[in-house]
Here is the input.
Amino acid sequence: MEFLQNLLLLFRYLIAGTWVTLGVTAIALSTGFGVGILLATFRVYGGAMLRTIAALYSLVIRAVPVIVVIFILYFVIARFVDLSPFLSGSLALGIASGAYQSEVFRGAILSVPPGQMLAARAIGMSRVKAIRYIILPQALRLSIPPWSNEAAIVLKDSSLVYVIGVAEILRRAEYVSARTLQPFIAFGAAALIYFSLTFLTNRALDWLEQRYRVLM
Amino acid sequence: MKRIQFVLIAVIAAALLLSACASGSQTSQEGYLGTIKERGKLIIGTSADYPPYESVDEAGNFVGFDLDLIREVGKRMGVEVEIKDMAFDALIAAVQEKKVDVVIAAMQSSPERDEKVDFSTPYHYQKDAFLTAADSPIVLNKAMDAAGHSIGVQTGTIQESWTVENLVPAGTKEDQVFRYERVDQGALDVKAGRVDILFINADPAAELAKELGIKVALVTDETVIGGQSIALPNGETALKAEIDRILAELEKEGFIQKLQEQWAIP
Here is the structure.
């Protein structure tokens, strides 16, 4: 009975951290989404300059461990701009995720048949308009399966922000483990929460994928 | 995790380079101490996964010997105390970057750390402990007897550098040194037989051994270099003097002794 009660308390404690995890993940994924779309468009349709910038970003950021990006943002950039640990951690993950997402979207844009662009141009749409209304809506649908992969990765990478003091699920599990010396229970509970989150996210994205399926 | 430290050092080096030209001069005589008093708040960095020194209780409060001590120090400085928790490896960088004012985390001074931050006078001396599995045949009469066996240590600790400097030249292979983020992870590996010996601070050792059914093979002060100190920014003499003064006062009044009893620290 007491065991169950402790378990209940443990979950309640970890769920408070779950909101932090969700916040970090949401900011990181949406920052990465914006960066990713922009870079992918640059890569495919940009001039030599934009193409190079986008390719360099993707090359450098993907080569650097995420934890380094977090440290740089918190210990170096944040001395010029006032960023809370929560914000610098989330943005750092977003910057990193942007590079991976740009590759996801680039692949998706390239798999839209080139005739679509030619047809849009032929009926008098500008390039920007064609990208916005013809290419991206199709590319986004195609990118859902690989993107759900990225979403799951970012969700779990969000635990890295603990190094600069953001108490999300994993850090809270560490507090409990240190106090009770029962790491299996604490981390098992954390794993269960991560599993539920990943499961729900992936189901939601599966649904989106079905809903917006393109028949080509 | 060793990589994290390396990375941190690289990041800080870059940061210092960047700010070398931009660093402002402190005008007031008190320096950083003045800044803290003006702000009315002392910002503490700690790594709250190391009971009885620092941990988080069921209600989510930061508790422990170190934190009770630093709250009293803050009270006597006439300022509020705010506690920020982060990874142990990030604490020194946080002081250097003024993300926190001082660090209290059962931390001992060492030559490497001394280059980056200053330390108060030690407020507590502790011993080190070697733990083995309950049925382990290994006999340890002195610290050097651990040479040749695989050994677990906590990343970034004095025990880690002592192991590398003393046991590795004496027969423990580099790949027999296992580094853990937290001591309980190492204790579990010792219990499971993956690592022969766990080398940690003596204070959490007894409780850890009891909880997990392993044994404390040796408690020693041969390996101890310094006591636990409060880390503060380099060159802030006024701040150091103030903290040292308060620590001496607390020692004399028996406050520290009382805290040790309260937290069952030898």
